[in-house]
Write a structure and sequence with these properties.
By secondary structure, the chain is of the alpha+beta class. It folds into two domains: 230 residues, f41 fragment of flagellin, N-terminal domain (Up-down Bundle), CATH 1.20.1330.10; 105 residues, no CATH class. It has eight helices and eleven strands. Strands 3-11-6-7-8 form a five-stranded antiparallel beta sheet. The longest helix is centred in the last third of the chain and has 58 residues.
């Protein structure tokens, strides 16, 4: 074995010791910074891959927070819209109860006028509820977009109520729900969808009891939405003693088409005439009573819940007798029940949107937990390991300082004497 001899100058020894002390000081400072921030990756240069992973996780967390803020705004709007629909249903039920009471045979015309005034107040509240806005002044039932007051009326034109907007319902996504509901679907009627018609009997003397049943849709796909008039003529004695005969003509006043006259022969004159109308596409109703020449019955589609309420108010207020009041009440109840069904359906849809918002929030919370874990694994410091490394580095740094101090005190002159 050979021995090698190295000559190391004192200056070089000093430089090496200072360089090592500087490196240890830098490492100790970095470890102290990591402990203070709680992060293993303080700057991208520490670990570029981990820094990129952490940045992606942070961006996704920020996007989730933004989506959740938007979802909360949408949830509040739908909750208010659902509450408005609940108020509308309550008003409709109150209206229905008063309408039923107006059909009592013990009421006088003045009593029915009083009830009609009460019904008028409920109808005005109904329009206010339908045009209700959220805290930002946006209509809650504006569908795909509408004026600040979506429902206009009563108007002097036909139809008497209109929806000032674009009907329809926006769809939900994986992170959002609609911010408003389709008020057109909730409050407006469509003849092919709902088949809501109002039958009105011409003014007749109190001695005759001519009424109709409620117009009911039997096949909504056949309903045209046209207006119809039924006119009676040739009412007189029948061929058999004690009987009468009547002829009626059905006219489609929208298209101008007139049906062939239909004669009902030999019905007992001491009993009401009952005619089942089946010639109107998709609709059916019954006429009961003793018609006279010139008596007419008009059928018009009801464009909205508000129109149905206005018709009920008008017919109840103007009813000259209990027979006419019963006619108005029966027709109004049938149409109001269809309107209530529309409101219940839309309210149920609003409830499902709120449930969907809860599910979206739950999914986003799970994603946030996962992303937070990804970020933590990428950049957070293991505190136990960090403290241990810091203590080790501190001990090494102190040793380097002490050894340098010992070497610095060495001098050849200390041994020359």
């Amino acid at each position: 074995m050979s021995n090698s001899l190295y000559r190391v100058s004192t200056a070089n020894q000093y430089d090496t010791a200072l360089r090592n002390i500087g490196q240890r000081h830098t490492s100790l400072s970095n470890l102290q910074e990591n402990l203070t921030s709680g992060k293993r990756v303080v700057r991208p240069s520490d670990d570029p891959v981990s820094a990129a992973q952490a940045e992606r996780a942070i961006n996704r967390l920020a996007r989730i927070q933004t989506e959740q803020r938007a979802l909360e705004t949408q949830r509040n709007a739908i909750a208010q819209a659902e509450s408005a629909l609940g108020d509308a249903i309550g008003l409709m039920q109150n209206f229905r109860e008063l309408t039923v009471s107006a059909g009592s045979a013990t009421l006088t015309p003045n009593d029915r006028v009083t009830i009609a005034n009460q019904l008028q107040g409920l109808r005005e509240q109904m329009v206010e509820v339908a045009n209700r806005k959220d805290t930002n002044g946006v209509p809650l039932l504006g569908a795909l977009g509408s004026a600040l007051a979506p429902f206009l009326g009563p108007l002097t034109t036909t139809p008497d109520y209109s929806f000032a907007g674009l009907p329809g319902q926006t769809s939900s996504t994986g992170v959002t729900i609609p911010g408003m509901l389709d008020g057109d679907s909730a409050f407006m009627f469509n003849p092919q969808r709902d088949g809501v018609y109002n039958a009105a009997v011409s003014a007749i003397p109190n001695t005759r009891q001519l009424t109709t049943s409620a117009v009911t849709p039997v096949d909504k796909s056949l309903v045209t939405g046209d207006n119809y008039t039924i006119a009676f003529s040739a009412v007189g004695p029948g061929a058999t003693p004690g009987t009468s005969t009547a002829t009626y003509t059905l006219t489609n006043t929208t298209t101008g088409a007139i049906s062939a006259p239909v004669t009902v022969p030999d019905y007992p004159s001491d009993k009401p005439l009952t005619i089942a109308m089946t010639d109107i596409p998709g609709l059916s109703f019954t006429i009961t009573g003793n018609p006279a020449n010139g008596d007419t019955i008009t059928l018009q589609p009801s464009p909205s819940i508000f129109s149905t309420l206005d018709s009920a108010i008008r017919d109840i207020r103007d009813a000259p007798n209990s027979n006419a009041a019963i006619q108005a009440v029966g027709q109004a109840l049938a149409n109001m029940d269809i309107g209530l069904e529309r409101l219940h359906n839309m309210r149920g849809y609003a409830g499902e949107l709120l449930n969907r918002a809860d599910r979206i929030t739950g999914d986003q919370e799970k994603r946030s937990v996962q992303l937070e874990g990804d970020r933590s694994r990428a950049e957070d410091l293991d505190m136990i390991k960090g403290i241990s490394d810091f203590q080790n580095q501190q001990v090494g740094y102190e040793a380097a300082l002490k050894s340098y101090a010992q070497v610095q005190r060495l001098s050849l002159f200390n041994y020359i004497g």
